[in-house]
């Protein structure tokens, strides 16, 4: 039986690109580690935000669609993206959300306190304090390493068929069921970050893809050989899995589990430092070889953005 270490990245659809950058870099203090394009739709940006080095388990990625229709969060989607922060950092984030007039609520689940809020385009986010996970060394504005987001705590999955989703997580991805509470079932991967998944056990009305919704959740594979093993293993489990796709910073395969959530499995290497330096990550527009000849046109059509301090 194969086991994933946890979440590699989560990809969502948002609205105006500058609003997206302002929220995740300017307010949340994440680093824009890569500015590129959607390899399947090069007229659209693809942004990657994470810790200072863009480590797996810290990366949230976005396709910005300015003026696109608003989606509907529901069954067949990641409902809530959970970020883990250092113990003692919650009061800092409450004050910071207040500063930027972002409404939030507090709730408890499995003995943990969560700070829940939405981003500028309606994505549901939450903070939780945990010891697990390495300190994020990135400093941006008032967000210092001692309070900075470490990466993903995990996610809350909304399923059309929760029992099937739980079965996929246990039997295919190798997570372990560790608790049940009310309408939530909690599962855990063996890694130290992006490792806690809560599944709503009540089926939800189908979501609608659009701005403010998660497109897919990606799980970690160690390397190319492990990735090919995963492809064969997922196929053996009865899922229709894609061919391997080269995403420049990782290889990817995709399949839709039987609760209708789109799963990806992505390789940890080569990562985000193979085509630029640590110091310049996220600054230039990086293009894969097949789109390099379109650079001038893309620079003219893509909306200019800048990473700016909002404090």
From TrEMBL:
The UniProt record lists the keyword Repeat: no
GO molecular function: dioxygenase activity
Keywords: Dioxygenase, Oxidoreductase
Signal peptide: none
Pfam families linked to this entry: Glyoxalase
Cross-referenced PANTHER family: RING-CLEAVING DIOXYGENASE MHQE-RELATED
Protein name from the UniProt record: Ring-cleaving dioxygenase
């Amino acid at each position: 039986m194969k086991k994933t270490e946890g979440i590699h990245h989560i990809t969502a659809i948002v609205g105006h690109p500058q609003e997206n950058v302002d929220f995740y870099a300017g307010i949340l203090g994440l680093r824009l580690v890569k500015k590129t394009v959607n390899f399947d739709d090069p007229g659209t940006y693809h942004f990657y935000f994470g810790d200072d080095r863009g480590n797996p388990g810290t990366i949230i990625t976005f396709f910005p669609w300015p003026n696109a229709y608003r989606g509907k969060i529901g069954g067949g989607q990641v409902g809530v993206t959970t970020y883990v922060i250092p113990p003692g950092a919650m009061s800092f984030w409450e004050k910071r959300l207040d500063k930027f007039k972002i409404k939030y609520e507090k709730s408890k689940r499995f003995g943990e306190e969560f700070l829940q809020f939405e981003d500028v385009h309606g994505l549901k986010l939450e903070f939780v304090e945990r010891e697990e996970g390495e300190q994020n060394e990135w400093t941006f504005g008032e967000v210092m390493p001692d309070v900075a987001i470490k990466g993903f705590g995990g996610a809350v999955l909304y399923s059309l068929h929760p029992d099937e989703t739980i079965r996929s997580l246990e039997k295919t991805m190798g997570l372990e069921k560790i608790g049940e509470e009310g309408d939530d079932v909690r599962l855990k991967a063996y890694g130290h970050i992006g490792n806690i998944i809560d599944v709503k056990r009540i089926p939800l009305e189908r979501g609608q893809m659009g701005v403010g919704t998660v497109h897919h959740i990606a799980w970690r594979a160690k390397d190319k050989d492990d990735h090919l093993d995963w492809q064969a293993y997922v196929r053996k489990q009865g899922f229709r899995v894609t061919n391997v796709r080269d995403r420049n910073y990782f290889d990817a395969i995709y399949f839709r589990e039987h609760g209708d959530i789109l799963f990806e499995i992505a390789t940890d290497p080569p990562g985000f430092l193979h085509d630029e330096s640590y110091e310049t990550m996220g600054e230039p527009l990086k293009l894969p070889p097949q789109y390099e000849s379109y650079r001038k046109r893309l620079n003219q059509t893509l909306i200019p953005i800048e990473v700016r301090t909002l404090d």
